[in-house]
Amino acid sequence: MQGNEARHDRLAVRLSLIISRLLAGETLSLKALSDEFGVSERTLQRDFNQRLSHLDLISDKEGYRLSGRLTAWRPPDIFTFLQKVGLSRYFPGLTRKAVNHLLNSDIHYPCLAWHTSIETHPTSAECFYRIITAITSIVDVRIQQTDSEWLQLTPYRLVLQGAHWYLIAAFALRLVVIPLDKIQSVHITEIPSYRRQDICQLSQEDNFIQGLPYFESFQRTMTDRDY
Hints:
7 strands, about 20% strand, SH3 type barrels, 9 helices, about 230 residues
């Protein structure tokens, strides 16, 4: 009897966590859930197809998610944030349970990430969040660099490399990289952005990111030699 109750308790906890993440707008992978909950993928398929059949779910190669017809409410989620900005790689085997332990440690923090201070311009904060707004809204921006004219760009990503943030963007379909501390002003336009998939992919590759500090010099050299 106690074994059945414990099994039912685990099932209830698993289903409640799955539902809360679906409502937060996440796409849930069977493999990731199997590793987290210690159950088979077949059991999880039964959860989605039978026990959660009342939900309007979509299933594809990425996993299960709520239909777009339902409005997802996303509470503050540090685990998702760490994944989306590329910081989860710094925490070996990071899970939601580990994040909860870190957040619940009020007296003695078990982890400390030491890093160098980033170099910023007095207007960096405002420019930073305007660029983020433009990227998520999929619209172009007009930026003014220090001692430079206004330039209309399609923004792709802001990437932190070393002590600097870099804007990866396109100008007339040409790839450009601009240090954030050289951007003086940003204006968000209403012009829809057209993003090239190859630049999207390139902007998250390790080798490209490592070369960001040298991109401007390399580009200037190529231009001077008229390649």
